Fold:
Amino acid sequence: MTRLSVPEMSCGHCKAAIEKAVASVDADARVNVDLSSRTVDVESAADMSAILAAIREEGYEATTIG
Ligand SMILES: [Cu+2]
Structure:
């Protein structure tokens, strides 16, 4: 599991956009968006750099934590 910091997400629209971005890279990924902490937990066999790129393409800065 990789935890991402996505500081600009703030609402259900952001949550849906990020889930869609991750799914575009790996349809089987498990994604848990936590709006209160502005973190996203991702469980995926895909390359994390591709997932980060897809989230950034949706307009959100994203970095791995830890
Ligand atoms: Cu939003």
About this structure: The domain at 2-64 is CATH 3.30.70.100 (Alpha-Beta Plaits). The longest strand covers residues 30-34. DSSP finds two helices and four strands in the chain. The pocket of copper (II) ion is lined by residues 10-11, 13-14 (CB under 6 Å).
